[in-house]
Amino acid sequence: MTNKSIYIKNESLSVDAAYQYILDERSGGNCIFVGSIRDLNMKKTVRSIDFDCYDAMALKEMHKIADELFSAYEITRILMHHRKGLVKIKDIAVIIAVSAIHRDAAFAACRTAIDALKKRVPIWKKEFYQDGHYWINSTP
Amino acid sequence: MTNKSIYIKNESLSVDAAYQYILDERSGGNCIFVGSIRDLNMKKTVRSIDFDCYDAMALKEMHKIADELFSAYEITRILMHHRKGLVKIKDIAVIIAVSAIHRDAAFAACRTAIDALKKRVPIWKKEFYQDGHYWINSTP
Amino acid sequence: MEYSIWCFGIARDIVGAPRLLIQLDTSSSVADLKEKINRMYEGFGQLKTYRIAVNQNIADDQTILSAGDEIAIIPPVSGG
Amino acid sequence: MEYSIWCFGIARDIVGAPRLLIQLDTSSSVADLKEKINRMYEGFGQLKTYRIAVNQNIADDQTILSAGDEIAIIPPVSGG
Prior knowledge:
The complex is a heterotetramer, with 2 copies of chain A and 2 copies of chain C.
Chain A: E1 4-9, H1 15-22, E2 29-36, E3 40-41, E4 44-53, H2 55-72, E5 75-83, E6 85-88, E7 92-100, H3 103-120, E8 123-129, E9 132-135
Parallel strand pairs in A: 1-5
Antiparallel strand pairs in A: 2-7, 3-4, 4-6, 4-8, 5-7, 8-9
Helix pairs in contact in A: 2-3
Chain C: E1 2-7, H1 10-15, E2 19-23, H2 30-40, E3 51-54, E4 57-59, E5 71-74
């Protein structure tokens, strides 16, 4: 069994599957971050979201982030799954899951992973509202 | 629907059920901590663990912690479930799950919750090894 | 007056039962209770520390016990 | 030389297609490519910024493009 699971998927992501993946008899602390689609952003009601993704480069960057985390923290396993395509409110956009012997490393690596993903991984979010749409971050 | 779920249970805890509980259309950031039983502690192989619990006082303290977190952080929902009785390696001891509009609050509240639980809530862990047992923290 | 004391964690192992019956003078304090417990069971002297909860709150040594109080021995906790 | 440029996110909307064919002199740099893109589509001037990836790595302006490079327009990312 490998110690990282990195995917971009066009189907629903499962929190339970993520936990099952990182579960390891050596680990006592497991931290899972789930990014879900919320109904309100920048004071506008969001109806749906379309994730565009440069798959090959995104996966490469996610693997790089995971490898950096294994160097920086004493962690056991890491999972990074990102959704692509059209999603709706309450759907899962991303799951980061990290197991470690102790919770300090699990929390820190999980937080660092989602921050790095949002900064570095080539994925783009287009929000659809009643009256239009907006590519997040793209225009001032 | 209430915004906190606080339980001490004599049966398996479910990560998926925890996520379903905290999921809310207003939230975008969800942080889940899972404390699982690991096979090695203080260089000894752990065979099983028995959680003793002062249920009434523990629940009261967990509710207090949850209420403090609602005051301190902008969070949407919180779940704190703790296992009691006999558990084995890889079983879940505790789940803390927090949803929030933004991930900063979700991470911070989740971390504060598990730290407070470990410090304040009257639950006791007895580890069984091949050659004996030990009540964690109790004796020097 | 007779008090019934709940014993949790290692306290239950030291006492050998989940409840301990203790005779104390009226208006005894938590400090008096601890002194009596320590005298009855030397195992408590080997703990890092322990506290007494009265009516589900940690009580300080000066707290006076009353009939009907829910009293418990709280060794160092280790949940999570 | 003709380059095929992948367009992602808002770049795809600006260009109106997932790929953009661009003629550039041999030994053109990423800076040359950006200049040409900006001239062809004024929409790129309205972005906060954008970068060019060459062979799946963010490339700086001085990078020289070669035949067979995998080139993509990378608007500000917003995953997660």
